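User: Hi! I'm a student and our assignment asks us to look at how structure tokens line up with a sequence. Could you show me two examples?

Assistant: Happy to help. In each example below, the sequence comes first and the structure tokens follow. Example one:
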Amino acid sequence: MKFTHFNKEGRARMVEVGEKEDTKRLAVAYGRIRMKEETIKLIKEGLIEKGDVLSVAQIGGIMGSKMTSQLIPMCHNIFISGSDINFNILEDAIEIEAQVRTVGKTGVEMEALTAVSIAALTIYDMCKAVDKDMVIEEIKLIKKSGGRSGEYIRKEAQ
């Protein structure tokens, strides 16, 4: 395995993808934000002062996916054909899953990971007044498809 983001002098570069074929691409990422049970209850009941936490986090995550190339230095600016965020509310945590799609020359793994991260950070921001002990964790790629390297599915996701 070889890193591709270095030039012959060993300095960072953006990889040339112009010769690659356009393919349908999908990436799914996961993350979780742990919090007090009381905070979960406030979110469910719509009692967080800043507003509807999950609606705002959904928009934040989608916006994050669209802005990834502005945040990650060597990430290509790509056309995103679809971006969605789903939440699973547990007793003491909220699970976040992002799905990002494109048709293009490079994948959307970074966009899906950024979407999850920004959604989790948005939840933290909206709830920090009542729970500063929240922990964002387990941000990871679950699967990706398309492109030269084909399909990847994380072992524990199978």
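Example two works the same way, sequence first and then tokens:
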Amino acid sequence: MSGEIERAYLARTRAAYDTVAADYADVLRGFMADATWDRAVLNAFAELVDGPVVDVGCGPGRITGYLAERGLDVSGIDLSPQMVEVARREHPGVSFRVGSLLALDLADASINGLVAWYSLVHTPKELLPAAFAEFARVLRPQGHLLIAFKAGDDKRHITTAYGHDVDVDTYDYPPQAIADLLAANGIRETMRLVRAAEGIERQPQAYLLGVKA
């Protein structure tokens, strides 16, 4: 059953983001200028990490590019080939490639930092343990993991996004559930921030930072 869930999740998520890639990038371009809490969390991560970093589920590369501007040796991975094309065009000095967060094309203990910035928003609960196990596998000891996600305990089916028809589910997760997954994979939580919804957001937003033992 989990195999069927994974195949459906990958296919629907890839199709949705291939469809919206260009418009998604246009809508979020420049968003960081007004995202005070996002900048604060990412700047703290950039100060803590030294060495190779991977932005998993990087989309059009806006977070990857932001971290690169802060001097990090960072690359991006995304499930959507169209998103990767946009990311390469928007950030020509940064490396991007297609891949799944459930099966990262990285050697064991090969990176010092991993960012999953709203990358789990479409990942069903049943697949979260596999995702966190993969994150832990590729992190070196004392490597840092930063997760950003929508805080809550809800599932919604999305049929339109960024002016396009799509067919994808989104999930909100309780921060403690994410912290428990960190702990279960040998990653010690070092920071948790939950902020109120702002602007068009419908629910609180959460950021968790952890370090691998």
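Here is something you could point out in your write-up. Residues 2-212 form a domain with the Rossmann fold fold (CATH 3.40.50.150).
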